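User: Okay, second chain of the day. Same drill as before: sequence in, structure tokens out.
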Amino acid sequence: MTFRGGRRRGAREEAARFETRLTAFGELLAGHPFSADRLDATHEMAVEYARALDAYEAAKRAASRDPALAGRELAAGLAALNRLNTHLVGTAAPEAPAKPKARRPEPQVLEVEAEATPVEADHGDRRPSPGDRARRPGLRDRYTSVQLAKRTGLTVAAVYLLVIALLGSWWLAFVGLMALTMGGGLAVFGGFLGWASASQLVGTVRGGLVSAEYLRTTKKVSYGLRDAPYQHFYVYVGDDGEKVTYQRDAVSRSLAVLPTRRLWLVKGGGRTGMETHLSALWATPLSFVLLDLAVPLFLSGTAIVLYTCPGLLIRVLAG
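Assistant: Same drill. Structure tokens below.
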């Protein structure tokens, strides 16, 4: 029990250290002097600043799911901020010696700890070499598997409707197009909603009800007019040392917080493809309601698709 308690305490301390580093990086971004309307702002500066912001958001999202990925994103964000600061220092205009003025402190280049994997530089403006032009990339190199599946499905549907139009009538093909669009949309939406709800319920059964401890309150780097500007962070450390964090919006930093909060531990992995996370108590009853709604949508959409394909073709061939 002492060894397990020490491991959980060490995991909480590691999570707190990373949250401190992430918060410090967010404060650097919030107080950074760069803006797109600067007179000396360039496209490269804007790109590096956007990369730093994107890396911060990615690290914040991955902190509870994949600490290693969050560390790599944080390192990438710091590297982008360093490059931005280097551009700013290199393009800063010298002050006139006759009228000395109080200079604004130059942005300092931050040192990134080598605890994350190296991030490869993005050479998006690299021109293709003659050897690259000679070899035409194939479809698998140009598109993802999801994009290829979409293109294949659209091509098959177009050929099928063309056959319906030639053997039957164009009006019947138009009816088939409308039915495929409506039925396919219902089937896809119902299937996705049902899979997500079922995965949530299965993960909840595997994880169960746990108690997460309050970690800290941080201010968001960016938020909308109607969004809460603060976030409460809760952390749960499992028996195997796995850390899972939960974020809850807060209107003010001065509001009292609960030292512990009862949450559902939704275990990911397996065939669900879902990552382990914490969810509120109302999430499980809502998943039951969404599952009840998803099943009729999926079945009705599937029936409409089957009526269209191969139902219309059988109707045309039967005369």
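The radius of gyration is 27 Å.

User: Thanks, on to the next one.
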